[in-house]
Amino acid sequence: MIQETREQFIHLFEKEPLMVVSPGRINLIGEHTDYNDGFVLPAAIDKKIVYAIALNNTQQCNVHAVFTNETVSFSLEEVKPTPGWINYLMGVVYQLQERGLPVQGFDCVLAGDIPVGAGMSSSAAVEGGLVAALDHIFAYGLDRMQMALIGQKAEHTFPGVKCGIMDQFANLHGKKDQVMRLDGRSLEFEYFPFNFPDYKIVLCNSMVHHSLASSEYNVRRQQCEEGVKAIQANHPAVKSLRDADMNMLNEVRAQLSSKVYDRCNYVIAEIQRVQDATALLKKGDLQQFGELMYATHEGLSKLYEVSCPELDFLVSLARERKEVAGARVMGGGFGGCTINLVKADKVEEYVSFIKSRYLDQYGKEPEVYVTIIEEGVSIID
Ligand code: GAF
To answer: What domains does the chain contain, in order, with CATH numbers?
Structure first.
């Protein structure tokens, strides 16, 4: 894909581009914890966005998207939220301009194989790839965390999703065969190997794309903040759900709507689960780790309400199978993928089982991706 994208760029713009590979991500456990100052356990994967990009000595940016086969242009003098995929790039450009960093017109070809709306964070890949490309071209000297924060701000201000930092972080910090535990508060992180040759990471795409995903995401965030506010009346030192426990939450239960109570209940438990899960992973206990993934799914489905019948069905299918250590909905939810840890020698059998049962139930085949853990954003000079 890298070579094809480069050739297409040369064909369209008649010059040599800089190539950038920007991956999607998985998250093993720790969902909706990042914006509550909690922990997450993501990794970059082999699904990616590819940029071919070069300056054009104008104030105009011309972006050809291979997936829609259209070229969209915008002027650097008028960067404002705009419908469509170009919004993600414009958001990044705006954030760079806001910081007083120079941006000049560019031509670019954007290609990729990250399925959109599947919970693998194609948007963070678009953002991270562009920040890294422009940092390289203009020698801003940004470090990877600064780049991630710029991508996150772009997402907040242009598409308007008040996301946490996990996706942009994973996209820019990934390392081959390593998972990362990120502390959503301090932004400190540690790498450790995901060393289970007997298992594969299998993503099952429900093919459901919920149009309310981003507005509902923002609602979840507000509900968590509401819970924190109530707890703070008794415990002023609590700054986020990271600092809270179930006793504190139960003290204010009567003041909270049942939805807000359930959301906070899930997040408090999930933050602890990531800690427990990390210890299990380091010990090599994938079976117990998998049980925690199922517990996460239960919470995301019943308490946080970001699952859907199709995703619940996919997880219930996983539960029937001995070759699966654990499964759950991955990412923001409301559709997209489940992540499954599956015995390597049984993957084929599992995939055909899932496909046929899902087809029987919903009349459509899920796409299934057997994925591997890869490097974060890479510049190919
Ligand atoms: C989305 C967000 F972008 C992340 O920050 C994270 O909150 C995730 O949903 C849920 O864990 O991918």
So the answer is: 2-194+375-380 (3.30.230.10), 199-371 (3.30.70.890)
- Which residues lie closer than 8 Å to 232 by C-beta, 6 or more apart? 238
What is the number of other CB atoms lying within 10 angstroms of the CB of residue 218? 14
> Mapping DSSP to helix (H, G, I), strand (E, B) and coil, where does residue 170 land?
helix
Residue 251 has pLDDT above 70, yes or no: yes
Best probe residue, ligand 1, of 31, 126, 167, 329 (max atoms within 8 Å of C-beta): 167
As given in the structure block, the two tokens for residue 23 are 């991956």
Pocket of ligand 1 (CB under 6 A): 31-32, 34-35, 121, 163-164, 166-167, 331-332
Query: In this predicted structure, what is the pLDDT of residue 213?
Result: 65
What per-residue string of b and e applies to 341-363 under the rule 16 or more CB within 10 Å gives b? Answer: bbbeebbeebbebbeebbeeebe
Top mutation candidate among 26, 27, 29, 34 for ligand 1, by most atoms within 8 Å of CB:
34
Strand partners, 51: 20, 110
Any residues with CB less than 8 A from the CB of 355 and at least 6 apart, and which?
365, 366, 368
Provide the β-strand partners of residue 19: 52, 380
Identity of the amino acid at 122: S
How confident is the model over 208-247, as pLDDT tens digits? 987 656 789 999 999 999 999 999 999 999 999 999 999 9
Set 135, 167, 243, 262: catalytic member: 167
Q: What's the pLDDT tens digit per position in 5-38?
A: 999 999 999 999 999 999 999 999 999 999 999 9
Which ipTM score applies to this complex?
A: 0.99
